[in-house]
Specification:
The chain has a domain at about 5-80. About 45% of the residues lie in helices and about 20% in strands. The protein has 13 helices and 13 strands. Strands 5, 8, 9, 11, 12 and 13 form a six-stranded mixed beta sheet that branches. Strands 6-7-10 form a three-stranded antiparallel beta sheet. The longest helix is centred in the C-terminal third of the chain and has 69 residues, at about 320-390.
């Protein structure tokens, strides 16, 4: 399958029978690639449960969202809401996040990537590479694409991973249990663990780190500087359906240097989202992507004027888990859709009855006018004849 065919299958929305047939044929082309294993005889056998082809998942999402919302989201006109994220998960079953694995220091940034960075950042390229400035907020996603991150709709957070070599270094130097406790927010690393962790993170490609956020595994090991960067609050929207509290989008807020890029790290996913402070140093980020599970931790980080990354203190928070509220929401959506369907049927019947009544009145009035006109014409004819009879006598 060509790249054109894949993009057409992924993004094209059929509107005619011919276009629908085209998409179905493209879907059949890739159906064998989705969870099927090829036998020695050349045939195919399902690997476990029979999977769906991409077109079937997309069909479910298209129907759930409606045509306008689907187009708006996939054409980049707007971001999906929290509720639309839940509908996405109900169709796909799980969320597959686009991720990036950092290079180690023995790997050079590919020439194509470097050329992309130069083209994207222009005059900022040398400032970022020298550590004098961070990637501008407006260029963050384009820089991500230079490194191969091309997130699709419904992927709000980014996932950055350390290579296996660095992870092995961390677990061996400070221990698997200690590393897990530190990354889960149960405790902060000791000074000795920070030194050991620093030696492991030194294995990462230093130039790449100037263009990308620090890896999530490194954040607990960064210097805590609450005077520079602060994560002060996390608020979750909630609503009650069928007597159950259903969570909604999360709003993160804090303070940092004015007009600076802020990276928010949310565990246990872990995902990274980006925002920017205003001229007063205040920042706010609304997360519509649902989080799985109830208990989470978060950090905010920023690069100082010297190019050093510092973090806020760890922020523990609890949310109404999406997986618990999802079914309640979907049931409510089914009820709402049923109510809307009944309302539409009632509206159609009402409009139809009204049109019928109007047509009936028009026809009756027309017939009445026609009848009156016929009577009037008949009377005029009779009067004419009488006048003719009166004027027919001789004149003496």
């Amino acid at each position: 399958m060509s790249q054109y065919e894949f993009d057409r299958l992924r993004y094209f929305i059929p509107t005619t029978n011919n276009e629908q047939n085209e998409i179905m044929n493209l879907g059949n082309k890739v159906k064998s690639c989705w969870g099927y294993a090829t036998t020695k005889e050349g045939g195919q056998k399902p690997a476990g449960q029979t999977p769906k082809a991409p077109i079937e998942y997309e069909g479910c999402l298209f129907k759930s969202l409606g045509e306008k919302a689907y187009k708006d989201i996939y054409y980049g006109i707007r971001q999906p809401t929290y509720e639309e994220h839940l509908l996405y998960e109900s169709c796909y079953g799980e969320r597959k996040m686009t991720s990036l694995t950092y290079y180690t220091n023995d790997v050079q940034i590919p020439k194509e990537t470097d050329a992309c960075l130069r083209q994207t950042l222009k005059s900022y390229y040398s400032k970022v590479k020298s550590g004098q400035a961070d990637v501008p907020y407006e260029a963050r996603e384009e820089v991500n694409r230079c490194f191969g991150i091309n997130p699709q709709a419904f992927e709000e957070g980014r996932v950055y991973k350390i290579p296996d070599e660095v992870r092995s270094c961390l677990t061996q130097s400070i221990g698997e249990t200690a590393f897990s406790e530190i990354n889960s927010g149960k405790r902060t690393p000791s000074n000795d663990e920070k030194v050991k962790g620093e030696s492991c993170f030194a294995k990462l490609q230093s130039d790449q780190l100037k263009f990308l956020p620090r890896p999530s595994e490194e954040i607990p090991f960064l210097e805590e500087d609450t005077d520079t960067i602060n994560l002060s609050g996390i608020k979750e929207e909630t609503k009650e359906i069928k007597g159950k509290g259903l969570g909604g989008k999360l709003t993160f807020s804090g303070v940092g240097p004015a007009n600076s890029v802020i990276y928010i790290y949310i565990y246990t996913e872990p995902i990274v989202v980006t925002t920017k402070t205003d001229e007063n140093g205040d920042w706010v980020y609304e997360l519509d992507q649902p989080l799985e599970g109830e208990k989470h931790i978060a950090y905010a980080t920023v690069k100082t004027s010297s190019g050093k990354s510092v973090r806020s203190s760890v922020f523990d928070f609890t949310v109404v888990a999406a997986d618990e509220g999802k079914q309640v929401f979907l049931e409510q959506e089914d009820v709402s859709q049923d109510v809307r369907s009944k309302f539409m049927r009632l509206a159609i019947l009402t409009v139809g009855f009204a049109l019928f009544a109007v047509v009936t009145i028009v026809v009756v009035n027309f017939l009445r006018l026609a009848k009156n006109k016929k009577i009037a014409n008949s009377q005029n004819t009779t009067n004419g004849k009488s006048n003719d009879d009166t004027g027919s006598g001789s004149v003496n």
